Amino acid sequence: xxxxxxxxxxxxxxxxxxxxxxxxxxxxxxxxxxxxxxxxxxxxxxxxxxxxxxxxxxxxxxxxxxxxxxxxxxxxxxxxxxxxxxxxxxxxxxxxxxxxxxxxxxxxxxxxxxxxxxxxxxxxxxxxxxxxxxxxxxxxxxxxxxxxxxxxxxxxxxxxxxxxxxxxxxxxxxxxxxxxxxxxxxxxxxxxxxxxxxxxxxxxxxxxxxxxxxxxxxxxxxxxxxxxxxxxxxxxxxxxxxxxxxxxxxxxxxxxxxxxxxxxxxxxxxxxxxxxxxxxxxxxxxxxxxxxxxxxxxxxxxxxxxxxxxxxxxxxxxxxxxxxx
Length: 325
Known about the structure:
Elements: H1 5-21, H2 39-53, H3 57-69, H4 101-114, H5 121-135, H6 158-161, H7 169-177, H8 183-190, E1 197-199, H9 217-226, E2 239-241, H10 253-259, H11 266-273, H12 278-286, H13 288-303
Antiparallel strand pairs: 1-2
Binding site for heme b: 193
InterPro entries: Haem_peroxidase (IPR002016), Haem_peroxidase_sf (IPR010255), Peroxidase_pln (IPR000823), Secretory_peroxidase (IPR033905)
Binding site for Ca(2+) 2: 243, 246, 251
């Protein structure tokens, strides 16, 4: 048996390196260590600067990662504008309220000044989300890089991939399962609702014509003050917060709130009543470190969803448009 060990060991090493350095959408830690050594630091400094100027950008980075990676691939398709036969994903009703895309361009400009045509827009989304989580008091996540950008939009397929705010828990779990995230991870990722705001369009069904009986009455009154119209203007800045105690800290207050019938969305409140998810809600409500650990794992899995290969993708010059050579 001893004579076979070295051969097996060599085969393992060969297969490892073949897998690690293949061009089929592989990503890895420190991908830009040679081609753009300062890439991750540039993104980090831009995220910090933008946070200090516009605090809500940190929330936007996390949401942008979710809305990009859930639809087919982490490929920056969500950043494409409607032009040259491309229908922007931003026009989808599932992406109502998405903001701060212009700041992605600011980060891209800083990277282009240092390393032209090197860092993908998909990696900017991933790294900005990683650094945004830290700015919100969340955990530091070691995130791989090397993603390529898509050459087209997935606008026609968004409804099949991104759960709606009033979908059943079973459907939401199935959507996350399709990208490799289990029940525990799904409950943790929904904890991102601990920060930021939700457009009134996604809330009014719980308030009008009658208040959802699962809503805490005092919280319902707050929501009605924030969302006074049964048919809000989708272009109006009408929002409500899920977490009134620590609205800009990524913590387990979200779970404490939904256990007290203060869930902003239907999907939030259903986590408590569903027997598959409620045990995890209780554990995360009781232990912030546990929530952070599970959130890190789930966000990492999401960020690695189906990377585009070198042959199929590109590094866009401008995140808003595909390259035209």
